[in-house]
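TL;DR need structure tokens for one chain.
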Amino acid sequence: MYGGLINATYTDWRVALTVTGTNISNVINITPPSITITNYVWNVNRTDIYVNVTLSVSGPYSYLVLGRVVTNSSIESMYTLSPNDTSVTINTGFSAFTIQRPKLIMNLSSPWLVIYPQPIKITLNITAPQHLAYAGNISIYINNTLYNQTSVDLQPGESITINAELSPDEPGLLNITILPRIFSQ
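>> reply
TL;DR here they are.
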């Protein structure tokens, strides 16, 4: 029978076990899991923002990842964010991933020149990219004044076209600004 304390030292995916006061020691190599993001969707809607993430975990052992024991399988997690958050960082304990919030793809088309008092016809094409579901308002401003607000609900990859006709009160230069709005902004 040996007397002494067991000392466990962890460095660089190795655990060294030593019984103090003896010549007994051993090094155990640990193989970390391979963790990848297989899918994610940002859900931006009128009341909150959350991100659904699917992680694939593989390796020779069972691993504790995000509070769950995983053996060569996928896990899903949801993260609730504030309106100002533009990214989410997921720390698995083995590695960390940062996912940026995708933006709506918006294309505005209108004529460069219209003879007054003819109306100005504008077309706005909006597409939600592959990893974004968006439900909110699209606001059109003319010279910094709200002209039109349209509610949209787009799933990833969906598009919508908004047509508007402007009738200015007088000839001049118009500045058209398009803003997505959530949280009753």
